[in-house]
Amino acid sequence: MIKPAAAALFAMLILLQSMQLSLAVTKVPPGNRNAKQPAIPGGSIKRTRGTTFEKKYKKIRDLLARDRKLMSKIKSAARTHGIDPIHIIGALVGEHTYNVDAKDRLQSYYVKALAYLGQDLTFKYERTTLKKLLKQPSFSKCASISNAYDKWTCREAVWNRQYRGKSFAGQRWPNNRFGAVFFQPLYAGQTFGLGQLNPLTALKVNDMVRAKTRREPKLSINNAPLIYNTIMEPDSSLLYMAAVIRHSIDSYANIAGFDISGNPGITATLYNLGNVTVRAAKLRNTNAKRKNSGKKPILPKENYYGWLINQKQSDLRSLL
After folding, report:
1. Is 27 inside any structural domain?
2. How many of the other CB atoms lie within 10 Å of CB of 275?
3. Longest CA–CA separation in the chain, Å
4. Binning pLDDT at 50, 70 and 90, where does residue 196 land?
5. Which of 33, 51, 165, 299 measures 20 to 30 Å from 111, CA to CA?
6. What is the DSSP string of 51-105?
7. At what angle do helices 276-292 and 4-19 cross, to 10 degrees?
8. Which domain holds residue 40?
9. What is the pTM of this model?
10. Element (H, E) at 258
């Protein structure tokens, strides 16, 4: 069973979202809270050997500047989910500056997306398929949750508490993220496509995307190739990116009481870090304690990734 603390946290998240609390929402001002860029992780530095972050930034920036068709698609995806397109640009630039190099042509992403449809892929760890894992009693309390984002967040919580790095249900499980163990059978822990999404993220926001555009298919763990194609194909990838960002903005307003819609560095940070509802709940709890102690609330802060986006915002906005 989920430990009481985890169960309480998840129950609180569901309650906060379902009630759509009428919090006094504080608008987060533009710009960085940190005077200097926070430390860049070793993994990003390792992936940049042989080049520089500035060169990688220039490569994705130039792709966005010269490909007006891509920029039009970014604006369309932003309109679909009611966000400023600078948020999508920020996430794209952050991913291709600190994770992978951008491809030279948008067409390259379409070609690679089609390649996934012909592959025989199954989400599994060793001999245990994800479908079989989710039928175990430990996950039963998540089954009744209708919202896809909350359902998969619940399942992640179960994994972290009962399976991760432990012997449970007759098997020793790896000490790794749920998404890395079960959702990237090709390259464990990797993200894919223009938006550098992973299959778990796509499943979380699939219903959000489909609510806005019915042309997007219903995703299922029983059809892994379709999920990979969806996150690799640029048009759908941008729609999913916009949905992830929309969810971040809504979560921080409804749970933490902060309007982050005017700060692309914060939305980029959350795009990079994930676990948005949990982070928003933790910030809300921290500020509740600070208020009781007579202290000022802490504003959401950017990490190294979001810091760059705010620092380069004028340059990036010129692309629009």
Report:
1. yes
2. 12
3. 60
4. confident
5. 51
6. S-HHHHHHHHHHHHHH-HHHHHHHHHHHHHHT--HHHHHHHHHHHHHHTSPPPS-
7. 90
8. 4-121+191-317
9. 0.86
10. strand 258-259
